[in-house]
């Protein structure tokens, strides 16, 4: 039997689902959320901090880690799990998203993609085979085939090109992948074009993948467009396979995606918001840097059990934030990660009880305006 | 009976001593070391981190906290202990040292001192009475009378002026101090001039203080000059009173000071070194940013029980340091604080056994050269 599998326990092709992802480094219930440890660290937090706030798994960035410290360096140290001293499941992305955000025009060819190095700004080449080789060296439980993320907006012709390129690379990744203790997932692209999302989902599934990323979302399109694209993609993926909605999103986005069949989401939002002083709570985002919190003795959230809420006042966290103190970024990050972890627990409960729409109605309006200051 | 007292259990006027400082927020054995939580936070570390690495007490900075968040703000939140969620003893300095490091020429008058604000660069005035008032509002266990620290080098005439000014301010501080649950200590100055150190010690003691800081050390003079000045000062202080050697120092300095009768030391060194990647260990300072550690799977120190050593490799800490990651600063700071805490335990043991000279011989040579990169 394979060292990884997905057990779908509730739901089917469409709508909310629940299950278990069984992976070489452990089993997690779904739906699940993965914080981003892009450079093998969730920013400002040590890996041992994370389990204490209910983090179950993380996603690391292949492009960043391949350059620093280097995939072979990580492999020589026993892989990402040993390197980070994290015993639970991990995923790596393909590095393809960085083609979208870091590379210039003309950077993509049939062979692969030229990416901008975040270390020294030079251009480095990434082929499908090299993406797989690097991810095998990193050794996460879930690896992802190299994909090409369409920018937004994009013409239908361009988006079709990106889908077809992603399919050709996916095939090469399947052929290159060797590790039997690592699960290689294919990625659906197609921007907001329904026919392309359907085509991408069908053809990626036809390549034989047993797990799927839905990529190219939350890159500038409206929430309505994003959710419509997701709906089409999942409608044409095998229901028994897990679906990771990549790079999404806000607390409301999480619920919306699970309503449409997502099993896994990842996003930098909780920790990025924390570094900008946006604290997640029942009533929306509290901006801890605001003057009103300077003398506020209350915890961030009196129902939260994270270290920031158990031990410190808003006034102290305001003070640390105004000092631009690393200790403050960490405490606020742990709070926001705890918020996401508790939200995922509530989402699981609501899936079981069929009350996900009610949960959505209870959440504050996480519009882009709500997140002002949290966006890069 | 007073809520604070010093119980001297071993030693006398000169040489190594051991005892207990009993304070409103707890009792600590001496000799003791106080990390600097200048802005009510040991940089990069949360207060709850500190007890776990053996920190027993801390010193906060009156000048900084008076301006941000404000002494009255801290008082309204229940004082520094409640603000920081730290239940153990705390000390505050007088703000006087900042006259040395922050103020310009002509900033000192009989009334007090003009200090540069670290918040907005403006000049703010601090009188002896205001220093006491702010420290009473902050509410640490130990407060310090406003002193004037001589720069180095300084003429005998100037240093005598600074001593006499410090004495006149000390008298005003004694008169202004009201809190019975707070211990007000006087400060000995006099630079490297033996006759002035003697005069300052005798006259400060004559004012009736029952605890003493020895200030104006480690400001540029040689280690030999520093230790000679300390020797003269303690020889003329009442043996039954505790002595805090302020702003000193390296691990070797700690032992040297205890050899000469110090009960308490404080220094930013362990955390400042950590932020510069200097890791304290048996063999001296390990520079974690060096390329040799990129692939080193060993802990920083295989005999250390801090979180960094228990959980992570040099390779991972090297990675975090090279990323300039706040998580790395914290872990390295906790390690260095643990080193100091264990060193102080060894110092106490050596005082009890009369083997402090042997301990000094075992320590690596913490010369200024050893600390390259750790100095500001």
What is the arithmetic mean of pLDDT of chain A? Answer: 94
Q: Structural class, from helix and strand content of chain A?
A: alpha/beta
If interface size is counted as residues with C-beta under 8 Å from the partner's C-beta, which chains form the largest one?
A: A-B, 40 and 40 residues
CATH homologous superfamily classification of the largest domain in chain A = Queuine tRNA-ribosyltransferase-like
Q: In total, how many beta strands of chain A?
A: 16
What fraction of residues of chain A sit in β-strands?
Answer: 15-25%
Give the helix level of chain A as a range of percent.
40-55%
**Numbering strands along the chain, what is their spatial order in the largest sheet of chain A?**
4-14-13-12-11-10
Assigned CATH architecture of the largest domain in chain A: Alpha-Beta Barrel
Largest sheet of chain A: 6 strands, parallel
Q: N- to C-terminal separation of chain A? A: 44 Å
Number of domains of chain A: 2
Oligomeric state of the chains in view: homodimer
Morphology call of chain A = globular
Rg from alpha-carbon coordinates of chain A:
20 Å
What is the level 1 CATH name of the largest domain in chain A?
A: Alpha Beta
């Amino acid at each position: 039997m394979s060292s990884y599998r997905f057990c779908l326990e509730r739901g089917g092709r469409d709508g909310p689902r629940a299950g278990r992802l069984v992976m070489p480094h452990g089993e997690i219930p779904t739906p699940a959320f993965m914080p981003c440890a892009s450079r093998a660290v969730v920013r400002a937090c040590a890996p041992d901090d994370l389990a204490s706030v209910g983090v179950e798994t993380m996603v690391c960035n292949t492009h960043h880690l391949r350059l620093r410290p280097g995939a072979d360096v990580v492999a020589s140290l026993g892989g990402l799990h040993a390197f980070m001293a994290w015993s639970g499941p991990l995923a790596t992305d393909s590095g393809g998203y960085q083609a979208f955000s870091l590379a210039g025009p003309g950077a993509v060819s049939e062979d692969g993609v030229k990416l901008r190095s975040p270390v020294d700004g030079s251009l480095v080449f990434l082929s499908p085979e090299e993406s797989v080789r690097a991810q095998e060296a990193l050794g996460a439980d879930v690896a992802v085939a190299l994909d090409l993320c369409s920018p937004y907006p994009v013409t239908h012709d361009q988006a079709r090109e990106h889908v077809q390129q992603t399919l050709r690379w996916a095939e090469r990744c399947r052929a290159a992948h060797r590790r039997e203790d690592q699960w290689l997932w294919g990625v659906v692209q197609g921007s907001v074009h329904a026919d392309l999302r359907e085509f991408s989902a069908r053809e990626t599934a036809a390549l034989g993948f047993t797990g799927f990323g839905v990529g190219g979302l939350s890159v500038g399109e409206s929430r309505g467009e994003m959710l419509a694209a997701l709906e089409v993609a999942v409608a044409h993926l095998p229901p028994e396979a897990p679906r990771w909605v990549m790079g999404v999103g806000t607390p409301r986005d999480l619920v919306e995606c699970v309503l449409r069949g997502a099993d896994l989401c990842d996003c930098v939002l909780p920790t990025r918001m924390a570094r900008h002083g946006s604290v997640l709570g029942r009533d929306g985002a509290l901006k801890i840097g605001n003057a009103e919190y300077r003398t506020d003795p209350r915890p961030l959230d009196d129902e939260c059990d994270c270290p920031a809420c158990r031990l410190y006042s808003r006034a102290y966290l305001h003070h640390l934030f105004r000092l631009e103190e690393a200790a403050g970024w960490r405490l606020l990050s742990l709070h926001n990660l705890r918020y996401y972890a508790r939200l995922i627990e509530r989402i699981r409960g609501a899936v079981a009880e069929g009350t996900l729409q009610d949960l959505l109605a209870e959440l504050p309006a996480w519009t882009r305006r709500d997140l002002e200051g949290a966006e890069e």
